[in-house]
Design goal:
The protein is an alpha/beta fold. The protein is built from 13 helices and 15 strands.
Length: about 375
């Protein structure tokens, strides 16, 4: 007995677009369904753009879904490309009709996305490794997570996540690649082949950040992490202006020289009126491979020193969220695009990172910024 149109459509509703993360039936990507008397099914599928990098994934997922329907004897997929009008309709469906002014969705009333800007006073303290592993831990815990690689000059997040696909553009909307269930965008995805440098002045940096936030289709995120460049330069100031509700996370090492610089990076919150979520001490110690004794390679106490100093400067408690030990596998995972919290979640470093991610994932019971839906009455 041949399958019915309803059964095939229901199967297609289980196919999730790998970029937009919604069923292809909701996105009007199913062009046609033809069912032969012998049970052979031909499905026409619209791609958003010609040369879509996800076409092989979509073809495979549609084939597997339809093949599971009772009575199907074979599946053939025919790919087509959306017209300009169809792409505009899709853009309106995803983002609404906002008009010519592109707004940052995380600033809109009612946005439930929690935004963390991960900062450091200087380079080399493992800020990007911490960002990537926190994001991976949150995503593994069931949250919808995105990362903006805002370190324009020193972008490294795509490599650390293994995100080697170029973003797809639908009209003037950018679909971010997805790796380990994390949506990610970086200037490195737009550069020509080769390890060329980005040579931009302040206004171009600010424009790039705005495009990453407003032009990219992020969907309904629970958490957005921004990997900031070291210091308190143009991007840090732009983040404060573009995302005034973003909470700062300061990463340091135990070394006092690094802690002093990290304190300056965190103290920007006093001028920008941002909230400081806490301090993370990375490379806190090295577990001895022979006796498990903790070796203080970079000294001790830097993280707590930064937290205490910022508490005094800001007049509000700034917690030391955790101390992440040195682990060779953390570096190896970054080079291979495999976050340690996923490959070895029970290792000491991964355990501490997952603990920090769990702490940051808990929402405050405060009503600050929450839309209560109340109207004044006389």
């Amino acid at each position: 007995m041949a399958p019915t149109q309803e059964l095939v459509t229901a199967a297609l509703a289980t196919v999730i677009d790998p970029e937009i993360r919604r069923p292809i039936t909701d996105l009007d990507m199913v062009k046609s369904i033809e069912i032969a008397p012998d049970g052979a099914v031909r499905v026409g599928v619209y791609l958003t753009v010609a040369g879509c990098p996800m076409k092989d994934t979509i073809t495979r997922d549609v084939t597997n879904a339809v093949a599971k329907v009772d009575g199907v004897t074979g599946v053939q997929i025919e790919l087509d490309v959306m017209s300009t009008e169809q792409r505009k309709t899709l853009q309106t469906k995803l983002r609404g009709d906002r008009g010519p002014e592109k707004e940052i969705p995380f600033n809109q009333p009612g946005s439930l996305t929690r935004v963390f800007a991960v900062a450091s006073g200087k380079g080399g303290v493992g800020k990007s490794s911490v960002t990537v592993n926190l994001a991976a831990a949150m995503a593994a815990g069931g949250l919808k997570v995105g990362i903006v690689d805002a370190d324009i000059y020193g972008h490294s997040v795509p490599r650390m996540l293994g995100a080697d696909e170029r973003p797809t553009k639908v009209e003037d909307m950018i679909m971010p690649p997805v790796a380990h269930d994390i949506k990610v965008i970086s200037v490195g995805m737009f550069k020509p082949p080769g390890n060329t440098a980005v040579v931009w002045r302040g206004p171009m940096l600010d424009r790039a950040l705005h495009q990453f936030l407003a032009d990219v289709y992020w969907g309904d995120l629970d958490v957005l992490l921004l990997d900031l460049p070291p210091g308190t330069g143009d991007i840090a100031i732009s983040v404060a202006q573009r995302l005034p509700t973003a909470e700062l996370l300061v990463v340091t090492t135990p070394q006092m020289a690094a802690a002093e610089v990290a304190e300056r990076a965190g103290s920007i919150a006093a001028q920008t009126h941002q909230q400081l979520a806490g301090v993370i001490e990375n490379m806190a110690w090295l577990p001895c491979p022979h006796c498990d004794e903790r070796i203080a390679v970079f000294g001790e106490g830097g993280g707590q020193t930064v937290a205490d100093a910022l508490t005094q400067t800001l007049g509000a408690r700034v917690p030391l969220l955790g101390q992440v030990p040195i682990d060779l596998r953390l570096r190896e995972g970054g080079d291979e695009g495999k976050p340690l919290v996923l490959t070895d979640p029970d290792s000491p470093a991964a355990t501490e990172l997952r603990k920090i991610a769990g702490t940051l994932s808990k929402r405050s019971s405060s009503l600050k910024g929450m839309q209560l839906g109340l109207n004044p009455r006389r």
